[in-house]
Amino acid sequence: MQKWEYLVVYIQSQEATAAAVELGMETHLNADKFTERLNHYASAGWELMHFEWDGNQGAKAVFKRPRG
Predict the structure, then answer these.
(1) CA distances for 38 relative to 1, 3, 17, 46, 61, angstroms
(2) Contact partners, residue 32, CB within 8 Å, separation at least 6
(3) What are 6-59's pLDDT values in tens digits?
(4) Which of 9, 12, 63, 68 fits as disulfide partner to 46, beta carbons 3.0 to 4.6 Å?
(5) Is the Cβ–Cβ distance between 47 and 64 less than 8 Å?
(6) Which residues contact 26 (CB under 8 A, 6 or more apart)?
(7) CA 32 to chain centre
């Protein structure tokens, strides 16, 4: 049976707070920078499963890849 690992990445429309950085959340100020990160994850084998804008707050992306 195939096993998967998952990754959730957040994009925020404002500067990262100290708490977000401390929690290891990746935050970017614009969609172009976020697109670069999406391509980075894709090259590491992550497949984008879900992308959702959160109003003016930012967006969330969910990835998966085979665990191995």
Answers:
(1) 27, 22, 22, 9, 9
(2) none
(3) 999 887 665 556 666 676 666 555 667 678 878 989 999 999 999 987 766 677
(4) 63
(5) yes
(6) 9, 10, 11, 37
(7) 13
| Cβ atoms < 10 Å from Cβ of 27 | 18
CA dihedral 50, 44, 31, 28 (to 10 degrees): 110
Is this model's pTM higher than 0.85 or not? no
Q: Which pLDDT value is given to residue 30?
A: 61
Amino acid 13 reads S
Place of tokens 């708490």: 19
Strand order in the sheet with 47-53: 4-12, 58-66, 47-53
